[in-house]
Write a structure and sequence with these properties.
One of its GO terms (cellular component) is BBSome. There is one protein chain. By secondary structure, the protein is α+β, with helices and mostly antiparallel strands. Helices cover 22% and strands 34% of the residues. The chain has a six-stranded antiparallel β-sheet, covered by helices on one side. Strands 1-26-25-24-23 form a five-stranded mixed β-sheet, with no helix packed on it. A four-stranded antiparallel β-sheet has the order 2-29-28-27, with no helix packed on it. A hairpin with a 7-residue loop joins strand 19 and strand 20 (259-264). Helix 4 packs parallel to helix 6 (673-720), helix 5 runs antiparallel to helix 6 and helix 8 (746-759) packs parallel to helix 10 (784-798). The longest helix has 48 residues, at 673-720. The N and C termini lie far apart (91 Å).
Length: 864
């Protein structure tokens, strides 16, 4: 097999924004010149009819004005063009043009010109048929064995075959079991029509059977007619090919028997006259068109198959003989004789690229010049290599693989929250062309926004888009977080998908309002600082009355819209702040807001050593009550699910019994089945309402649990003065889920995470580290194990445990601390063997303990 580009002999582009399809191309001696040269007839969906007679001066030359014989615009779209003996009284060729609701037959004639402009061509309408049904395609041939003329058969969109005997309408027949029209052709050897139905079957219908069948126009009155007046349309033979067909063609050459070729979506078939398969070829591409033509080898047929990869393959039966590259995807292909050149391949694309080409290659006259031998200059090569490496390094820096800094990002998202709580403005700025950008605004439930999805048109360079959204509280519980995010996804001009995002914080005034402070409260927390107390008039100016005469406001009240009141007090004598409330979860937002505003206040004053600490008791018992409440609602949800499943099974069983009774021909009493059905239905509705109410309560309990968990993480981090990395580990341990799911709940996820930390970085001995964790998480029976692990976790931290995922932290703490004097190290040598060395020359002793594959070095003492 050889692969070359098709040699362009002549080509042109037809019109502007016109569309073409399979039946829009035909080649024949339409003007009856008798020279044996074909003309190219092209019709378009825009109604243009063009006839070409290419005469290139040299191969590959563009169209000349005299190559276009005729161009005329008809009033309707052209579905198909064919050339045949369609006019009675003459055996000359005429042009048949199929429109949606009309069939027109034209005579094409030319007049010799006396000037340099050449001959003149015109078409004359011989006759036309107005169609009662919308046409799809047509075929022609000597139906019934007539001599010297061709008849036309048109297939409509609703499955009717309309046959015309030239100027007159013959009859119409509906195809049985019709759904969608397929390709249609006529076999003169068997006098039958062959099509491919929507059942993916090749079907053959005899012309005689169609002629003697009941007329389609009288099909509604078939029951009143006698049996002798007509017969049903019966298929001659059927072959299931298992796929839709793109085209069908019947060929009969002198040296080969008559064959039916069918082009499918993934195969092309060659069938005998009786429907048996001669051969088939499985294609590894998506074909678009084909045409069989005569082969030089006796008993074989050549086939041209075009595909959507712009390739044209030549097959001899099933053997691929040649493959050539086309400049377009062909929707129709023909073989023509043009200007004494036989076998020219004519292809047409769907956008009007018409090309006449031939196979083969042109000889290349280029000869490579002789290379002069010279000595190699390694210094020049090395300098050139360094220059190329520098270019490659600069090019790799600009690739879209690593994230760019904020200054060099292609697209920037900024969110600005209005202090008046009326709206939030999100601006998207693009430095390059951003294709299909979409913006998502995300907030934590029960917070919501008026619109969370935005889709923009393509952003041009240095352009921006701004949207305004409003946030509000949706539900009867306070949120656990006031943070939100804006995410923009887009494509670069090179097709690379990218994401840009930014975070924002909603104001505290959105979920609470100023209120009178409360003296009594069930839960109290005290936050210590290393700086003098700050007046609330400075850091909580949005909650303090501006008309207040007191310059040193040290107490504030916060009333949440869905829960209790929270009070914030600042000590006048010490550096402490107290937060108190009747609900533990309500302490979280005020505590976090206090710490953030204090940090911002001292940051503005360039104070870098500000720190907050917590020295009180961690409120574990109150926290465990929230865990028990959430877990109880999860158990209730499972119970409701089981009860709903049982009642649904019962309801369907009663329905089946009632249906059996109703279908019984002998009436039988219902035996109170209808009463039982109604009662079961009410139970299902009541259980569904209870499950829905429990789901809402579980969401509220989970939100409260998240708030209390945030508070617990903050207190532990202030208590142990954890670093940023350690706080991240703590948050990942206690806050693994954004929401509960039936498959995975908060309790089992947190229990697994804490158990892992207790067996790794917080382990006391190697025995604990050797214990294996369960690889499958499931809902526990109770929360006793979880509460025990949380208590143990806090106890280990209080005793000096350190949160870390590094291997060194997993080692057992040494029994001998730095500064202890050891005069006898023989027992260490016996235990550790070669892993222990005494460096007397350095006057220091180092012990190397081998523990779980890691060497941990401790400085023990200095020799006296």
């Amino acid at each position: 097999m050889s692969l070359f580009k098709a040699r362009d002999w002549w080509s042109t582009i037809l019109g502007e924004k016109e569309e073409f399809d399979q039946g829009c191309l035909c080649v024949a001696d339409v003007d009856n010149s008798g020279s044996g040269q074909d003309k190219i007839i092209v019709g378009s969906y825009m109604g243009y009819l063009r006839i070409f007679n290419p005469h290139p001066v040299k191969p590959g030359e563009g169209i000349q004005p005299e190559d276009l014989l005729l161009e005329v615009q008809l009033r309707e779209p052209i579905l198909q063009v064919e050339v045949g003996k369609f006019v009675s009284g003459t055996e000359g060729l005429h042009l048949a043009v199929l429109h949606c609701r009309k069939l027109c037959v034209y005579a094409v004639s030319g007049t010799l010109g006396n000037v340099e402009h050449g001959n003149q061509y015109q078409i004359k309408l011989m006759y036309e048929h107005n169609l009662q049904r919308t046409a799809c395609n047509m075929t022609y041939g000597p139906f019934g064995g007539v001599k010297g003329r061709d008849l036309i058969c048109i297939q409509s969109m609703d499955g009717m075959l309309m046959l015309f005997e030239q100027e007159s309408y013959a009859f119409g027949r509906f195809l049985p079991g019709f759904l969608l029209p397929g390709p249609l052709t006529y076999s003169s050897r068997t006098d039958s029509f062959i099509t491919v139905s929507s059942c993916r079957q090749v079907e053959s219908y005899k012309y005689q059977v169609l002629a003697f069948a009941t007329d389609a126009d009288e099909r509604q009155e078939a029951e009143q007619q006698k049996l002798s007046s007509g017969k049903r349309v019966a298929v001659d033979w059927v072959l299931n090919i298992g796929e839709q067909a793109l085209d069908i063609c019947v060929v009969s050459f002198n040296q080969a028997v008559s064959s039916v070729f069918v082009l499918g979506e993934r195969n092309f078939f060659c069938l005998k006259d009786n429907g048996q398969i001669r051969f088939m070829k499985k294609l590894d591409y998506s074909p678009s068109c084909f045409i069989p033509y005569c082969s030089v080898k006796e008993g074989t047929i050549n086939t041209l198959v075009g595909n959507h990869s712009k390739m044209l393959n030549v097959y001899q039966d099933i053997t691929l003989k040649w493959a050539t590259q086309l400049p377009h995807v062909p929707v129709s292909v023909k073989v023509a004789n043009l200007q004494d050149l036989k076998g020219v391949i004519v292809t047409l694309s769907d956008n009007g690229h018409l090309q006449c080409s031939y196979l083969g290659t042109d000889p290349s006259l280029f000869q490579a010049p002789r290379v002069e031998s010279r000595e190699i200059n390694y210094e020049e090569f090395e300098a050139e290599m360094k220059e190329l490496q520098k270019i490659i390094k600069e090019a790799t820096k600009t690739q879209d693989i690593l994230p760019k800094s904020e200054k060099h990002r292609d697209l920037i998202v900024t969110a600005e929250v209005s202090p008046d709580l009326d709206a939030e403005s999100v601006t998207v700025q693009s430095r390059v062309t951003a294709q299909k950008p979409s913006l998502a605004v995300c907030v934590q439930a029960p917070l919501a926004v008026t619109c969370d999805q935005f889709v923009f048109d393509d952003l041009e360079p240095d352009s921006s888009e701004t949207v305004v959204v409003s946030a509000f509280l949706k539900g009867n519980c306070s949120p656990s977080e006031l943070e939100g995010s804006c995410v923009v996804s887009y494509n670069t001009p090179t097709g690379i998908p990218k994401v840009a995002q930014c975070n924002f914080r909603l104001p505290l005034r959105l979920v609470c309002s100023p209120a009178q402070p409360s003296k009594a409260a069930n839960h109290k927390l005290t936050i210590d600082t290393n700086k003098p107390p700050v007046s609330f008039l400075t850091i909580f100016s949005d909650f303090v009355d501006p008309s207040s005469e007191d310059d040193q406001v040290n107490v504030l009240g916060f009333q949440f819209s869905t829960s209790s009141k929270t009070t914030l007090l600042a000590s006048k004598t010490s550096q402490r702040y107290r937060i108190q409330s009747d609900q533990l979860e309500d302490l979280w937002l005020i505590t976090k807001e206090l710490i953030l505003r204090l940090e911002e206040h001292f940051k503005k004053q360039n104070c870098k050593d500000f720190a907050c600490t917590f020295s009180g008791a961690i409120p574990l018992q109150e926290y465990f009550e929230l865990i028990d409440r959430h877990f109880e609602l999860r158990l209730n949800a499972e119970k409701f699910q089981e009860l709903l499943s049982e009642r649904a099974v019962q309801f369907r069983a009663i329905e089946r019994r009632l249906l059996t009774r109703f279908k019984d021909k002998t009436p039988a009493p219902l035996q109170h089945l209808d009463t039982l059905l109604e009662g079961t239905f009410r139970e299902v509705i009541a259980l569904a309402d209870a499950a829905e109410e429990n789901q809402a309560n579980m969401f509220q309990a989970f939100t409260k649990l998240r708030s209390a968990t945030h508070l617990l993480v903050t207190l532990i981090s202030l208590w142990q003065k954890l670093s940023t990395d350690q706080v991240a580990i703590l948050e990942a341990t206690f806050l693994p889920l954004a929401e509960d799911t039936p498959e995975l709940g908060w309790e089992e996820a947190v229990d697994a995470a804490i158990s892992y930390l207790l067996r790794t970085c917080l382990s006391k001995s190697s025995k604990e580290q050797a214990l294996s964790l369960s690889s499958q998480l499931s809902m526990p029976k109770d929360t006793s194990r979880l509460k025990k692990n949380i208590t143990l976790f806090c106890d280990r931290l209080a005793k000096g445990g350190r949160l870390s995922f590094s291997t060194d932290s997993a080692a057992q703490q040494p029994a001998v601390m730095p500064g202890t004097v050891l005069n006898n190290t023989s027992h260490l040598e016996e235990e550790c063997g070669e892993d222990f060395r005494v460096h007397k020359d350095l006057n220091e002793c180092y012990g190397i303990t081998f523990f779980r594959g890691n060497f941990v070095i401790f400085c023990i003492s200095t020799f006296q």
